[in-house]
Amino acid sequence: MKSLAGTGGLIRLILRRDRIVLPLWIVLLVAISVSYVKEYGDLFPTPDSRIKYASNAGFITLYGELSGSSLGEFVTWRLGFVPVMVGLISLLTVIRHTRVEEETGRRELLGATVIGRHAQLAAALTTVFGANLILGLVLALGMHSQNLPVAGSVAIGIVYASTGWFFAAVGAVAAQLTASAGTARGIAIGVLGGAYVLRAAGDTSAHTDGPLAWLSYLSPIAWAQRIHPYAENRWWLGVLMLAATIALTTTAVVLATRRDIGAGLLPDKLGPADGTLGSPLALAWRLHRGLLAAWTVGFALLGLLFGGVAKGVGDMMKDDPTIQEMFQRMGGSAGLIDSFLAGVMTLVGLIASAYAVQATLRMRVEESSGRAEPVLATATSRWQWAASHLVFSLLGPAVALLAAGVAEGLAYGAAIGDVGGQLPRLIGAALAQLPAVWVLAAVAIAIFGFFPQASMISWAGPTVCILIGLVSAGVATAGWIRNISPFTHLPSLPGGSVSAGPLITLLAIAIIVGFAGLVGLRRRDLPA
C-alpha cells in the first residue's frame, strides 16, 4: 500500500486547515433542517393543508414530489434543495484539496516527502466522506429530537450523507480530467446542475402526466430523494448511491494513475504557433468564452424549465376557498404565479453570483499558474489586465441572466398566450438581480486584491446568501441576518414595486468594494 503512504498525515492537515469551515457547514445545515420541523408544523398542522400546499407543478419543480402527508414527509420535501447544497460543498472541498493543491505546486512539494501517489486523493475523500457521515448522524439525532420517528430520521440522514458522498466522488473524477481547478469545478458543478434539472424536469412531467417522467431516474439527486424518509424508507436506494459512489471513486483512482502530477487527462488546447491576440481583452475572451457559453446555455435551460411550469402554480387555488382567500390579497392566481416567478428569479440570481465569483477567481488562477507575469511584463498594466477579466465577471452574469429571462418569458408567455406581455416583465426581473450579483463579485475582487491566498473564501458569499434564503424561508429570522444578503434588498419582480434607493445603494457598494480590491491588487506583490 505504498501508494497510500502518508494518508493519515494528510487527513490531519486537511482537518487542521478546515477546522472552522467543516464544523460550521455541518452545524448550519443541521440547524436549518431541524428548525423546519416546528415552523412548518405550526404553519401546516393538518395533512390536507400540506398536500394542497405541495400539489402544484411549481413547487414540485423546486423541491420534488411530496411522498405523503405526515409532518416528517412534508419537512423532508420542503428541504429538497438542501441536499443539493450538501453535494456542492462536498465536491468543492474535494477539488480544493486535490486539484488546487496540484495547481499551486503544493502537491509536488509534498510528493518529495513520504507521500504515496494516491494519498492526496484518499485523504480528501476520506475527510469529506467522514464529514458527510457525521452530518447524517447529527441530522438523524436532531430530527428524532423533534419527536419524529427513528427510522425516518435515519433515512433523511442517509439522503444527506449519500448525496454528499456521490458528489464528492464526482469532484474527485473532475479533478483528474483537467489541469485547471476552475475547469474541474465547472465540470463537477455542471454534473450537479444537470442532475438537479433532470430531477426537476422528470418530477414535473410525472405530476402532469407528461412523457418525460423517466428523466428523474437518470438523476442521483432523485435517487436520494426517493428514499422517502418517514414514508417507505427505501434503504436500498442508499445502497445504490453508495455503489455509484464506489464506482466513481474507483474511476478517479484509475484516472489518477494515467496522468502526470499537475496535469489532466484532457489535453490543453494550444493556440497557433504564430500570431497575436492583440489586447488583454482578447486574451481574456479566449480564457472565458467557454465558461460564458456553458453558463448561458445552462441559464437558458433553467428559464425554459421554470417558465414552462409557472402556469401550474395557479392550480393550487382550484376548489379551495381557504387558499383562494389567502392569495386574494396577492392578486389571485396571477399574484401567486408572480410570487413563484420572483422566487425563481432570486434562485437564478444566486446561481449567477456563483458564476460571477468563478469568473473573478480566474485572475487568481492566472496569477498562481505564472501566466499573468508574462502578460504584465509587456506594456499591459495591472489595471488593464484586471479590467479585461472583470468584463466577464460583471457582464458575463448579465448575459446569462438575460438568457434566463428571455427563455422564461418565452416559455411562460407561450403557455398563457401572452409572449409580448411576459417577455419584457421577466427580462426585467432577471436583470434586476444584477446589483446583488455584482456586490458578491466585488467582494471576490476585494479578497483577491488584498488576500490572494485566501481567494477561495469568496465562495462563502453565494453560500451564505443561499443559507440565509433557506433559513428565512423556514423560520422567523432576525432582520439583521436577512439584511446580510444583498438579494434581500432587491425588488420582488415580477409583480412587485421597484424602488431606486436599494438598487443604487447596492451598486455603490459594489463599486466601492470592487475599486478597493483593485487598489489592493495594484499595491501588492504579484504573484503572492
From TrEMBL:
Keywords annotated in UniProt:
Membrane, Transmembrane, Transmembrane helix
The protein's name is ABC-2 type transport system permease protein
- Give TM segment ranges: 20-37, 75-98, 119-142, 154-175, 182-202, 235-256, 291-314, 334-357, 390-414, 426-451, 463-481, 501-521
Q: Which organism is it from?
A: Kribbella rubisoli
Signal peptide positions on this chain: none
